[in-house]
Amino acid sequence: MKIEFDISSELDKVIREAASNCEGLRDDFDPQVRQADERFGDFQANGMLSYAKQTGQNPRELAQRLIDALPESNFWETSIAGPGFINFVLSSSFYYKWIEKFGNSSKLRQESRTDKPRKIVIDFSSPNTAKQMHVGHIRSTIIGESLARLLEFQGHEVIRDNHLGDWGTQFGILLYAIKREHISLDDLGPDPIASLENLYRQGTSWTKEDPVCLSQARKELVKLQNGDPENLNLWEKIREISMSSFHSIYKMLGVHFDHSYGESFYRDKVEPIYEKLLKHNICIIDEGALVVFHPEHKRFAKQPFIIRKSDGASNYATTDLATVEFRKKEWNADQIIYVTDGRQRDHFEQLFLTVKKWYAAENVDSPTLSHVWFGTILGEDNKAIKTRDGQPVKLIDLLTEATDRAQNMVIEKKPDLELSEVKKRAKKIGLGAVRYADLSQDRTLDYVFAWEKMLAMQGNTAPYLQYAVARIHSIFRKAEIEPLDIPPTSYFPTSESERKLARKLLFFPIVLKQTTKELKPHFLGGYLYELATEFSSFYNQSKVMVEDKNIMHLRLLLCARTLHLMEIGTEILGIETLEEM
Fold first, then answer.
1. pLDDT tens for residues 520-545?
2. pTM, to two decimals
3. Co-location of 245 and 343 in the same domain
4. Where does 480-548 have alpha helices with state H?
């Protein structure tokens, strides 16, 4: 039995075969099979009424003839409804066989693996060195990581690349400020990344106020770009301090990267890009700059894609073109996914058009290029979230506040809990809440960041999902049995609550496919919320610990499979679960 079963196509084929075997229906009856509702199980064969009307026959009698001609199947059950509709409902044995078969992670992973694995580079997070990560970085970081986990689950080879902003004009200003203040990078205090950011702000203020300071900063930048040993040494230390700061946040979030090749890595790889694009007449010189126009595009026919500035300097476009070539040649990437905010849509659309023309001119297959863009996190005033003094919210402060708030929740609920356990639970609840508040939204939309909503135990929140998982664990503790050790049963899902939960479990592979197709984690998040809600309804209507062992084992099996899919789904989203809450 495949994990995915195209029941609609299968029914269509079987009904047509049955109709062809029924005398008088062979050429005239053209059944239309459609899914009656979202519950993946109820189907109706239309066409019966129109045919009966044309031939003056009783539609219910025709429906019965068709049912009698159907081959026996363990997949569905049939019945006649109304004036002659044929209802097809997935059978209890089908539900049972499915949930029995996919009982462990390795089996589900095996069946979920794609037949055509690809090598996929995901470019995400990408903070600037010498600056603290702020709340604006969280969307790229957690969306990118969740997509990486999703694609790995399906058998793709994923390369995580953190494309750092570690080169450019800002370093001239920072180096000037460091030297002017005679700062030692080995003695920046308890928060070195914050000290570097303050130095940069001070340097920026000086260069804006005094042209002489601006000239000095530019000279420091030129020295860095020309390989001056002193400036290179300072730059490398700045990068090390920055990476240490970033890693502490990535560790909190359970995020890792295979590479952190920043813009600096490509600084000696841009000249061949200019030569190739000029060779193929893809770019032109316009007002001293090297630019690409796309005449076939309504806006980009006149909006230039600047790949070299008029002063000869490279920019983001140049670096991104060099990055595509590196990832294709060195990593043999089949696809590159960029996870950035929506304000960069024009940039990436122009980049993708340029790469397509460049690779076509060289008769080389281009990797599939995808821009996974997202909206803005808003404060409760519906404006971009900031601190009271108008500064971006530091990401570390936001994550710390999340765990602090969650810790208060845990203590309020379990005041006698040991402090170590309180902190452990608080971290999972707080960070999970922040993460899911983002991943449960359609990434293309803005969303309002509201603490009370995201930490609520009811509604579409991470704590609600975590509670559902903890609740199922408590069932198995009381039953004194492990979820993978449930004995076989001769009782199949029969009651409405059992069938509804079993039906919801069947949706998992379909949801994975939709999430992958759209590269939108909120499809998976929404499914997990619906599954948790369906389980709650099942649990309230169907007592698990009953005297009849067959019924109890079936219901324990439904609990186990719900737990299994909840834990797999939350793991893909990067949300840690708890066995007790």
1. 999 999 999 999 999 999 999 999 99
2. 0.88
3. no
4. 496-506, 508-518, 522-541
